[in-house]
Amino acid sequence: MLIALTGGIGCGKSSAARFFEAQGFAVRDADRIVRENVLPARDIIAAAEARWGCSVLGAGGELDRAKVAGIVFADEGERRWLEQLVHPRVEALWRAEVAGGPAGDWVIEVPLLFEAGMEKGFDFVITVGASRDVQVARLIARGLSQAQVEQRIASQLPLDYKLKSAHAVLWNDGTPAFLSAQVAMLAAGFEARR
Q1: Strand partners, 2
Q2: Model pTM greater than 0.85?
Q3: Which listed site, 2, 50, 90, 153, has its alpha carbon 20 to 30 Å from 112?
Q4: Domain assignment present for 148
């Protein structure tokens, strides 16, 4: 089974993914693929430099992710340009890994699943949600300013849309143990379907 794990920024997708992995699911993180495989690619760097100039490059010629984030979260057109460049490559990479990997249940953590229109390519979609206050507190704890938090939340589809569009919801305003228990219940349901 191919399962998408999505949700709003700061809602706890990565925590849920770790709990799925502990339940024996193969888990892949689309954001990690972006960081490790897509953004370091020479053609992506060249395209970004051609569009935004050398100011987005670090000392070693790599993309400065903070500078890129400053551009794309301040301008929706620039964000869409980057997403159109990056999303197809990310999807191709994790799909190749699933196709070449062991048979079984896979959980793919895709923060922008609905924004990229990828939800139809999955057997099951899970959205992780949290209250706005909890989201904001978590993001500020990560070192983002209030303005950056608002930019990033506004750049995604409303959480309500993601919650209503999912097959299942994990609510993450509580403790890690509560989230883990929700994941265990879902995992048991998947096991029962086999």
Answers
A1: 106
A2: yes
A3: 50
A4: yes
Total structural domains in the chain? 1
Q: Is residue 76 part of a domain?
A: yes
Q: How many angstroms separate the Cα of 192 from the Cα of each of 25, 70, 186, 189?
A: 15, 46, 10, 5
The answer to whether the CB of 44 falls within 8 A of the CB of 90 is no
In the numeric block, which tokens belong to residue 154?
């506004």
Q: What is the pLDDT of residues 110-140, one digit of tens each?
A: 999 999 889 998 999 999 999 999 999 999 9
Element (H, E) at 107: strand 106-109
Residue 194 covered by a domain: no
Backbone angles phi, psi at 172, to 5 degrees: -125, 55
Which residue is it, tokens 């228990």? 181
Please write the tens of the pLDDT for every residue from 80-111.
999 999 999 999 999 999 998 888 899 999 99
Residue corresponding to tokens 């051609």: 50
Q: Which residue type is seen at 3?
A: I
Distance, in Å, from the CA atom of 143 to the CA atom of 86, rounded to the nearest integer, reads: 25
